[in-house]
Write a structure and sequence with these properties.
The chain is mainly α and 228 residues long. It has two domains: 139 residues, serine acetyltransferase, domain 1, CATH 1.10.3130; 44 residues. The protein contains nine helices and two strands, in the order H-H-H-H-H-H-H-H-E-E-H. Strand 1 and strand 2 form a beta hairpin. The longest helix has 28 residues. The protein is elongated.
Length: 228
């Protein structure tokens, strides 16, 4: 039996306050199909969807969804349906759902889908119950069909981090997706070559060579001992 979403207190966050500032370069770019994008605009929207749902650290060619991209490019599905397809893809399931506990997964989805941080632990618990009782598909549908998502993004706008930068502040909030980035000097110092250096294959080859040598030496020693 599935349970309804439990109530939880709301905390004060920037996105809960209406903004009246004039949009500038520091504001996030809003990708929407309301202005009938074509050609390269569609490609940019697809990339924006991947960047929002998978984050830059997980965007590689292997995780692309060509069927969904084709349907979206030809107008067969909306942005909301494209986002749903990405959230339910095998790649997203393996990279995010299966590799995190329910609380962390709920927090990531609220950040990426609703464009804000979780209000408190009660909200994480509430959505975790939905995830546990309705499964991944039911949880995703609840998020995408929520009043908060519809009011802010509707079916035609790519989700984004809402009101990350305020004109009254010199520094905005940190983006949700953060990953340390080293320059070439520090990568070399720490053993990085583009990605983390992996010596497991070389070690495995050494073991394969050493084990037979030790076995032969032990056999010879045993024969000598027996002969004497």
């Amino acid at each position: 039996m599935s349970l309804s979403l439990l109530s939880y207190p709301l905390s004060s966050q920037n996105q809960r306050v209406n903004g009246y500032e004039v949009p500038g370069e520091e504001q996030p770019r809003i990708y929407t199909t309301n202005n009938l994008p074509k050609g390269s605009d569609i490609d940019e929207m697809i990339w924006a969807c991947y960047r929002q749902i998978f984050n830059e650290q997980q965007i590689i060619k292997y995780h692309r969804q060509p069927v969904l991209e084709s349907q979206f490019s030809y107008g067969q599905i909306t942005v909301q349906e494209f986002i749903r397809g990405l959230l339910l893809s095998d790649s997203f399931r393996r990279l995010n759902y299966e590799s995190n506990n329910n609380y962390r997964f709920v927090e990531m989805c609220i950040q990426r889908v609703l464009g804000r941080n979780v209000y408190n632990n009660q909200e994480k618990l509430s959505w975790s119950i939905v995830l546990a009782s309705k499964g991944l598909i039911g949880f995703v549908d609840e998020l995408l069909n929520s009043d908060e998502y519809i009011d802010n993004f509707g079916s035609d706008t790519v989700p984004y981090q809402r009101r990350r930068i305020l004109p009254q502040r010199s520094i905005g909030e940190l983006p949700f997706a953060r990953m340390i980035r080293h320059d070439s000097y520090h990568r070399n110092k720490q053993g990085f070559v583009g990605l983390v250096k992996d010596d497991s294959a070389a070690i495995y080859r050494r073991v394969l060579l050493l084990v037979p040598s030790f076995a032969v030496a032990a056999l010879v020693a045993t024969i000598v001992l027996v002969a004497t």
